[in-house]
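User: I'm new to structure prediction. If I give you an amino acid sequence, what do you actually give back? Let's try with this one:
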Amino acid sequence: MEMQRKEERKKGLSSGSLQSSSPFSPPIRQMSSSMSTPSPSTTQTATSSNFQALAAGGGAKKGMQLGGMGAKSKMSDMLEAIRTEEGISAQAMEEPPVSPPAASGVNAAGVVQPAEQPQVKMGSVHLVLDEKLSATVNRDGGMENLEVKGELLLRAGDAEHAKVQVLLSSKGNWKEDVQFKTHPQVDKGLWSSQHLICPRDHQSKPFPVGQLLPVLKWRFASKDEGQLPFNVTVWPTPAGGQQIDVSAEYEFVAIDKLEQLRNVLISIPLPTSATPKIDHIDGEYSINPKLKCLEWRIPLIDSSNSSGTLEFSVSGEDVATLFPVRVTFSVEDHPFCDVDIATVKMIDGGQEVDGHTRQVQLSTDDYRII
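Assistant: Good question. You get back a string of structure tokens that encode the predicted 3D arrangement of the chain. For your 370 residues, that looks like this:
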């Protein structure tokens, strides 16, 4: 029987009962290297790989297309014969290759970001205070710039709660020199006089229902290093013999009401692919071979561990190769610029909305030591 099958493949099967007219690319599933005996699934995986190779060969080698459409049909017949023999379904053959998911916390540029926050329960009115912090700090001391961009997003859960007004906290609590900009549909008069976020015409144009709408934006900028709540210092020292000794330190300053940092990550570039020797660390670390850096992680920083150190040695000569150092963290308890929610009330009647929810999202956008 095996000799007969081989002979049929050489001659090609009759195309009268086959409908396929072009090769397919079946999904590729990885096999476990720990398996010693092929299982049905691994057999199908190996066959699918061969099948894909045949399909690719049939379309790429233009010099082999002497028979025109007949050659393509014969190739399709051969592929269909393999599929039938190995028990691979036509549906499985037509599935597109499945791409592996992107690594958690890595953006398109390959920079590690804090983990995404879990979904929160939204009330009848949900308010999000979202801020992004960027800073550039010199390795020898001094800060070139600090910038925090924030926005207030509002989501009305139903038509009734689309007609609300949001009173922000007292201006005296805000950081100085914060610049604001309201949404075009927000009443600028009420904002200027009372710091109220309210639709200009709540009867005909209330807040949209079921979507987060940015109703207010703000920006804070400074060159004062004292405004930075989290400082990182990296001291590389040439030790001779093509070795660099590195001492790194972090310090958390609880500015205003910022009481803790989460998902802290300090990424230090490595001059070579050699594994560094860790002498001391407060926290945990890993080596990222893709980014060629040492990742120093501290899941939570508060008053109990407001400072910490990392000491290691690594092969290399040029200390400049250990920069720029990138820092990421997130804050969930309080906004950086102290722009916060005081009350949420209905416009008509003035009743306070008890079911409103508030969410704070402060994270780093681009914080680096150069």
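You can read the tokens as a compact description of the fold. Here is one thing that stands out. The two ends are 71 Å apart (CA to CA).
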